Amino acid sequence: MFGVLKKLLSRSDAGSTMSPSAAAQTYYDHGKVCQQGGDLDGAIRDFRHAIELDPENRLAYRDWCLALVQKGDPAQARKVIQRGLSVAPLFPDFHYYLGNLHSLAGESEKAVACYRKALSLNPDYVEVLLNLGTILRDSGQFHAAEDCFRHAIKVGPDSAYAYINLGLVFFKQGQFDTAAECYRKAIACDPSDGAPYLNLGIMAFMEGRMEESLAWYGKTLEVAPGLTLAYYNRSMLRLLTGDLRHGLPDYEYRWGQLGAAPPRSFPQPLWLGETDLAGKTILLHGEQGMGDTLQFVRYVTLVAAQGTRVVLEVQPALRKLLDAFPGTSAVLSTGDPLPDFDCHCPLMSLPLAFKTELATIPAAPRYLTVAEERIQHWAARLESLGAPRIGIVWSGNAKHLNDHNRSVALADLLPVLGARPAVSLQKEVREQDLEALRATPTILDISAELLEFADTAAAIENLDLVITVDTSVAHLAGALGKPVWILLPFIPDWRWLLDRSDSPWYPSARLFRQSERGNWSAAFAALEAALLEWHP
Prior knowledge:
Shape: globular
Strand content: 5-15%
Number of helices: 25
């Protein structure tokens, strides 16, 4: 086929009697062959020739646009599709492709307008229905999204993809039973698609059905072994249930998952405990949140004990706090020039390198210290407070994927504290909490004075207790050995495990858990009772 098309094209170039429309079709057909074979430059050239010979060749405009997108040139693709629209404004494919380009650029409203125009020309255009439904779902327009996906299913009842997306509409609304029904229908349509098995595992996990969830993750990897998110999710489950032996290897699939950063690229090898470090220099670098760095920096001393020189790279806000951390030869901020080193390891891979299990977690009563002059500064600053001194944090990073589950409103925490004076260690106070904070004279707000973690640590050293949700302050207080009471959602982050009120990572921690998903009442009641017992 390819050879025949080349001969026809050579005859056309030689001035044969082939009509312009026939030559245009030949160029178009050859362009499709090039595109399917990965020769995007050849495809673009041939589609352009086809349009020169037949300016109304709608398919050539469409596929030229697609080839440009495949090549990574969306700006030029947009110009091509606009040319096509000037020739055939009622061709729905042009509006669909333009909508895709707007969506690719993050221009959701323009994309929606294009998709709706395409549907006005072809109401049963399944690809448009699916893309429009996705944007509507992600913007919280669940009923409109549901209508799109149900229409797509009506047109193509065997579309596993449509059922998966419909399931996500219900999943995002917490309607797990209905979502599960959609995923099972998707499996019936296409048993080889790993996504519905994975989603069933996620829902079982969120509802605390861990054995069922583990089975779904196993099925996912059976049918789709390349679906790395399943390994990552399985690691979360295994680590949460205390199975560090199997969970830590799976945790190495965390890179790039759910918006996380990809792994750092170094010419030096990754060290995971398999080689001798004596006489070498290793770079240990932080990743993810600052609480993660605070939790796993404890491993630095274990690495240094192997006779190696340790260079520690951490987030800038932690630099001064960790500047003299035991076992380090140098402490740098992320972005600083790096010295020569022989190998590297992310801090969160160190538990794997040391084959950590629950019984072998290095859990010193405290492993962080604060400069004495900072402590004394905050001692003077907090001198006027009565006893006991309680620090509070009620919300974490608003951009965290699980923030809606782990943060609470200040107004909901205040009745638990009663009339006890407290110090707000909240670095960023959200708009909805400002009124409650300003209206509560028993809370001292020092947020403007907490310029870095060394300040927060020094303030904590002058407190008797820290009460916090799952944030970096929980790790900071635990690393300082300060009594810290942590409010946790029904399914917490893996490091807090399940069904226990203590933490093998932090001896000074006490955990207060939701008894059902989204309901803080039991945790607040337990916290209030503990406060009455601790200091009536």
